[in-house]
Design a protein that fits this description.
256 residues, alpha/beta, Rossmann fold, 41% helix
Length: 256
């Protein structure tokens, strides 16, 4: 459907060596986008780019540590030299600290999670905005990958849940401020879908009871995010900004 076409769009994705970012690269490139994948694991990036190019898609990889300003600059430089200015930025990079409460975590873990999940999204978005202005582009699109833990959480998700709550709020404030540059800012808030980050819950001995709390009685699949990411990344959402699209099987509205 042309409504969700990504033809002619250059999409930059952080945290693209695995999980959501890895999957989004395939979905968006299949819809016609040129994709630049960023992450620290060069071998994983190279493998994913090979898969995409073998399938006839346009993809490149650039090493990226979202906690380092110089790395972010080099990432955008390489992306632009390959496919031109970035049209859509997907802030997907994220980590968690393991099953730790606020009383257990130390400052090093706190800083690692907050710098990777939250501060990096600001740094990437700021650089994206500056480059959009430098190229005299009239529009841009930022998609934050948040989480339903921005509203409801369980013990042991500190400070991951805090970083995602802040990212959702960042989405709303940035949407207000970015409109002057022609930039839309929305967020995707997935529920529990098996990834490296969600192993704490997925591998829990109480997993059956946990799933019963999801109205649809199952964890999500990566494919459940295909439509929502295409909506937010494409011009199908051209009159959306400051929105948070929740994809969780009804989890956040389940019974307490």
């Amino acid at each position: 459907m042309t409504t969700f076409s990504m033809t002619g769009k250059h999409v930059a994705i952080t945290g693209a060596s695995s999980g959501f970012g890895h999957h989004f690269a395939g979905v968006l490139s299949a819809a016609g986008a040129k994709v630049t994948l960023g992450a620290r694991r060069e071998d994983k990036l190279s493998q994913r780019v090979a898969e995409l190019t073998d399938a006839g898609h346009s993809a490149c990889a650039a090493t990226l540590d979202v906690r380092e300003p110089d790395s972010i600059k080099n990432f955008f430089d390489q992306a632009e030299s390959t496919f031109g200015p970035v049209d859509v930025l997907i802030n997907n990079a994220g980590v968690e600290s393991g099953a730790k409460t606020y009383a257990m975590i130390d400052e090093e873990d706190w800083d690692f999670v907050m710098d990777t999940n939250l501060k990096s999204a600001w740094r990437m978005s700021k650089q994206f905005t500056e480059r959009l202005q430098a190229h005299k582009l009239k529009s841009g699109n930022i998609v934050m990958v948040s989480s339903i833990t921005d509203r409801r959480t369980i013990k042991g998700q500190f400070p991951y849940a805090i970083s995602k709550a802040a990212m959702t709020r960042m989405t709303e404030v940035m949407a207000l401020e970015a409109s002057r540059y022609g930039i839309r800012v929305n967020a995707l808030a997935p529920g529990y879908i098996p990834t490296d980050v969600s192993t704490l819950v997925v591998n829990s001995p109480n997993v059956d009871d946990f799933v019963k709390g999801i109205p649809m009685r199952r964890f999500g699949d990566f494919a459940d995010l295909d439509g929502p990411i295409l909506l937010l990344a494409s011009d199908a959402s051209s009159y959306m900004t400051g929105s948070v699209v929740t994809v969780d099987g009804g989890h956040v509205c389940g019974s307490l």
